[in-house]
Amino acid sequence: MTDSTFHKTAIITGASRGIGLAIAEKLAGQGVGLTISSRTAADLEALAPHLRQLGAPSVTTIAADMADAESLPAIVERHREAHADLSALIVNAGVGSSGDIADYALRRLDKTLAINFRAPFQLIQLALPLLRAAADRHRDSGAKIVVLSSITGVYAEPGLAAYGASKAALISLVEALNIEESSAGVSAVAIAPGYVDTDMAAWVHDRIPPHAMIPADDVALIVQTLLSLSRRTTLGPIVMARAGSGGHCA
Ligand SMILES: NC(=O)c1ccc[n+]([C@@H]2O[C@H](COP(=O)([O-])OP(=O)(O)OC[C@H]3O[C@@H](n4cnc5c(N)ncnc54)[C@H](OP(=O)(O)O)[C@@H]3O)[C@@H](O)[C@H]2O)c1
């Protein structure tokens, strides 16, 4: 069987808005079967017909909170029941959090790390059996994991230490994962953008207007391309900087 015999399928976390929604729309347009997740079931159910109309052959929805480790297995399980195959895991859900190290509450640190690092680690762990099986079937492309890191995980910024560290940890996780899994066809990429024009970046609109931010669709285009690569290539972190920013800050 060739790769074209298979319909590709993907799980996308944080798909109800922002970058995750742009990725869901892009992949739907490519005919990818989707499982979309965020915290609110009604948002996801409202989106499903839109994604089907764009071309997704099937859309499964599952509400889960990345801060609740017990709610994560159901995401992969629902996808397995609905689609059987899993060719791509898009680990996108995350939270922004700012504050200087000197007085950053440790409770906030724990929550940021739980959502931005522990949940991605756990989801990847849960999805690996399905991804390995898909890599055996998709002989050309293998199976892919795409993780939304941040430029702040590459270039540190004052006031973003906890967030940046959680995103730097994802880059290290992706590197280790590629060493462990990519020769068998499961490969991972971390995308590290500067400010993207979504709700998450609205807090800096007084300094950086929306039109000076990276469009969410540009991130989605990168994801679409990554999913088309052969299994024989792995990539380092993809840093996406805002035009005019100098490239070393969010
Ligand atoms: N925007 C930027 O400037 C920027 C730059 C670099 C990297 N990133 C990263 O890109 C990813 C997406 O960011 P975005 O800008 O699209 O954010 P966003 O507009 O705030 O959207 C976040 C998405 O994640 C979901 N989400 C939030 N908290 C969650 C939780 N605890 N459990 C499950 N789902 C949750 C949200 O849905 P619900 O609220 O309904 O659950 C929503 O679908 C994040 O990992 C972010 O760190 C963003």
UniProtKB/TrEMBL annotation:
SUPFAM superfamilies noted in UniProt: NAD(P)-binding Rossmann-fold domains
Keyword DNA damage carried by entry: no
CDD domains per UniProt: SDR_c (cd05233)
InterPro entries: KR_dom, NAD(P)-bd_dom_sf, SDR_fam, Sec_Metab_Biosynth_SDR
SMART domains named in the record: PKS_KR
Residue intervals of the Ketoreductase domain: 8-194
GO function terms (MF aspect): oxidoreductase activity
Transmembrane recorded as keyword: no
Pfam families noted in UniProt: adh_short
Keywords attached to this entry: NADP, Oxidoreductase
Family: Belongs to the short-chain dehydrogenases/reductases (SDR) family.
UniProt-recorded name of the protein: SDR family oxidoreductase
